[in-house]
Each structure stands twice: as C-alpha cells, then as structure tokens.
Amino acid sequence: MTTRKIDILLSEYGESHKNATNKLIHWICVPAIMFSIMGLFYTIPFSFITERTILANWASVIVLLTLVYYATLSLPIFIGFILVGGAMVAGNHYLFELVNSYNINYVLVSIGIFVIAWIGQFIGHGIEGKKPSFLKDLQFLLVGPAWLLHFIFKSVGIRY
To answer: Which of 81, 87, 117, 136 could pair with 32 in a Cys bridge, judged by C-beta atoms 3.0 to 4.6 Å apart?
Structure first.
C-alpha cells in the first residue's frame, strides 16, 4: 500500500503539534488566521465590478485557488473546504457589512484578528518547543487547516 501525499503532509505537520495546549490554540487560531486573511482579500475591490457581493470578491477567488490545492490532496478534504471556505467568505461578507455600518475599517479588524491569532500560534509553538511547520515549507500554511479538518472527519468516520 502506498502512502498518499495527504497522509505524509498531515503526519509531518503533526510532528510539531503534539502538545495538547498547542493543539487547542491551533483549533482557535488557524481558523481565525484563515478568516482574517479572507477578510483582507474581501476588502480589495474588483476593478471590473462596482458592487462587492458574497460571490464577487477576492476572498472567493482565494478560496477557489486553495480548493485546487486541496483537490490534489484529497477529495473529502476538497469537499470539506468548499463548505469551510464558503462559510468563511459568507462570514466575512456579513461581518464586513456590519462593521461598515458602524464606520469601522474592516481592514483594521482583519489585521487585528490576524496579529492576535499569530501571537497565539507562536505562544503555542513556544509551549510545544518546536518551530511552526511553515518555516520549513510554506505549503504547511494550507496543510494546517486540512490537519484540523482531518480530525473532524476521523471523529465522524469519514476517510479523508
């Protein structure tokens, strides 16, 4: 039996994520980082569309591009991230509208979430005593969310 690339990546990522506190921090901070990055992309206007919508925004484009990567790794992970990515784009859409209604700059909100979440990540890795995986290979920035999703799949009996 050959080892699939997704199994290799998840195993390698898991090597620096064994401490229970670090894992808990990752369950909070990885989705927060994803959400904030999508929020930053959401705020960039399309030059060819006058009104940003839930589908017509750069965050949706980023989700589509990352889905291509996930499709190369695992069909269930790909499908899972259609749901996760869609939920995060929708969340950003509605939060953007809410924040704008109070005249708050959504870029600053997204940057704040991003910075706080990365501080959490580095605290977790300090507790773990191991460097974040992405310092070895940037691809692990996309493996981290898949690593969390694979735990959800395992808990409900879905082979990833």
So the answer is: 117
